């Protein structure tokens, strides 16, 4: 083992010990509304036979291997044997050259591959059968070169639909094990590495915005594997009240991304309630978690820790302080849900920005386990570290309200509509509820709304979000999430 690697392991161990010490000190946190613990979240493993509306982005182990990794391995092996394997795309070649020329990152990535393969060797025999290649080798990633070859294949593929818990996010399927290793946790939390990785994600984004990405929206072969216009996709609600034209290729969309950000037909989602006192949900989500009496700053990375306003707002203390002692609602989106965001109220948009962040970072010490395959359990943590858009609105009687759409894994691009960008110190934008303010690209993710203390009484389904996690359908866009408290009406 090299001295460099020994030094890294020593520093990593010291860091983890310090974080554990911080967690001991964190015991003074006040109690909050009951919610499912991180242990319970981590223990909830996606079932590959589960119905699609449960919303899992990441497949169960068998699906990750059988549907993505094994076919990719086999495709690369066939091309190599036939001497037809194409060269690395410029973005992948540049990424590989960058990693190779920086010894610390090459060390982390190589260690991540070794740790991933060691993990799959520890699995039971039935799982191993899903992973072994034609030569009988049980490897997640064959070697250093193979890592980049697989990336090269993946960024020229489109996500697939399956009528199960699997929603077809191929890059996450590939990285589900590596991102949970000790070296993977270090690598995917590194800001410099993430800047380079973002170039790869941008290349994939460009592919998903091209006409080549319409292969799974082919009206001449609607039942092909992974098709988003198959009978199963229709049954799962992919097209419920969504704009489309069955007579045109791609259902009238010019790329997979334009399909993914499709709109509802006119009138499908009316905004309910009285705009003078009611606040609407601005993103169609399945309820996940509620918390009140929010703290300005917490050790959010510690298991079962509360939300930290300062970190949710990217260190912008002047905005975070507005919500101290307030309430928070978080929901999640699956790949088949509506992926646009709409203004939740009549009033002013006083500030908005995109906060850069991580893409494949898992909570420190989460390590391997069921949560490796289920990022839904990591949603509270991701709200503090992942790339996200942040909107702050002002309502005449409900006060300040924040809306934070958060990217998960490759679902990392949050786009604010140009006329909805409000820089620090700029004049507020007058806004009406239902106005289109932005959208996710590459997929969906999770979403947070934050309310000031004693301003709004939230709806039952929001306060008891944990009890509604298995609702068969998401809460419709435009539903009333909160009403101004009685004393505010006088």
TrEMBL record:
InterPro entries: PS_Dcarbxylase (IPR003817), PsiD-like (IPR022237). Residues 90-235 form the L-tryptophan decarboxylase PsiD-like domain. Its EC number is 4.1.1.65. It comes from the Bacteria. Pfam families: PS_Dcarbxylase (PF02666), PSDC (PF12588). The keyword Lyase applies. GO terms for molecular function: phosphatidylserine decarboxylase activity. Residues 28-52 are annotated as: Disordered. Keywords: Decarboxylase, Lyase, Pyruvate, Zymogen. Residues 28-47 have a biased composition (Basic and acidic residues). PANTHER family: PHOSPHATIDYLSERINE DECARBOXYLASE, PHOSPHATIDYLSERINE DECARBOXYLASE FAMILY PROTEIN (AFU_ORTHOLOGUE AFUA_7G01730). This is Phosphatidylserine decarboxylase.
């Amino acid at each position: 083992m090299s001295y460099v690697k020994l030094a890294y392991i020593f520093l990593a161990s010291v860091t983890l010990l310090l974080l554990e010490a911080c967690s001991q000190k964190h015991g003074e946190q006040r109690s909050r509304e009951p919610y499912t613990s991180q242990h319970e979240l981590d223990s909830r493993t996606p079932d590959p036979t589960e119905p699609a509306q449960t919303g899992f982005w990441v497949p169960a182990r068998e699906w990750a291997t059988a549907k993505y990794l094994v076919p990719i391995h086999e495709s690369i092996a066939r091309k190599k044997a036939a001497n037809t394997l194409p060269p690395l795309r410029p973005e992948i070649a540049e990424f590989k050259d960058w990693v190779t020329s920086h010894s610390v990152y090459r060390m982390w990535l190589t260690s991540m591959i070794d740790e991933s393969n060691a993990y799959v060797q520890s699995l039971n025999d039935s799982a191993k059968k899903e992973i072994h290649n034609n030569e009988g080798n049980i490897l997640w990633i064959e070697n250093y070169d193979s890592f980049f070859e697989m990336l090269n294949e993946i960024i020229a593929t489109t996500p697939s639909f399956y009528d199960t818990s699997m929603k077809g996010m191929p890059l996450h399927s590939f990285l589900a094990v590596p991102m949970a290793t000790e070296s993977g946790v270090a690598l995917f939390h590194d800001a410099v590495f993430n800047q380079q990785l973002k170039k790869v994600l941008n290349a994939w984004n460009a592919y998903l915005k091209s006409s080549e990405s319409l292969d799974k929206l082919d009206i001449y072969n609607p039942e092909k594997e992974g098709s988003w216009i198959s009978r199963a996709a229709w049954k799962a609600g992919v097209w419920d009240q969504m704009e489309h034209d069955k007579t045109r290729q791609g259902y009238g969309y010019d790329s997979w991304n334009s399909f993914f950000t499709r709109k509802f037909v006119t009138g499908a989602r009316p905004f309910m309630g009285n705009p003078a006192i009611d606040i609407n949900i601005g993103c169609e989500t399945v309820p996940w978690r509620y918390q009140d009496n929010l703290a300005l700053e917490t050790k959010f990375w510690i298991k079962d820790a509360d939300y930290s306003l300062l970190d949710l707002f990217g260190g912008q203390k002047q905005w975070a302080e507005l919500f101290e002692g307030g309430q928070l609602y978080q929901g999640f989106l699956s790949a088949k849900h509506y992926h646009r965001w709409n203004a939740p109220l009549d009033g002013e948009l006083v500030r908005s920005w995109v906060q850069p962040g991580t893409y494949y970072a898992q909570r420190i010490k989460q390590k391997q386990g069921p949560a490796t395959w289920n990022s839904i359990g990591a949603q509270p943590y991701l709200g503090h570290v992942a790339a996200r858009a942040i909107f702050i609105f002002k309502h005449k009687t409900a006060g300040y309200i924040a809306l934070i759409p958060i990217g998960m894994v490759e679902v990392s691009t949050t786009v604010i509509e140009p006329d909805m960008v409000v820089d620090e110190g700029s004049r507020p934008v007058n806004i009406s509820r239902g106005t289109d303010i932005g959208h996710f690209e590459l997929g969906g993710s999770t979403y947070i709304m934050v309310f000031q203390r004693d301003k709004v009484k939230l709806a039952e389904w929001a306060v008891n979000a944990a009890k509604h996690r298995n609702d068969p359908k998401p809460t419709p866009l435009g539903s009333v999430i909160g009403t101004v408290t009685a004393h505010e009406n006088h």
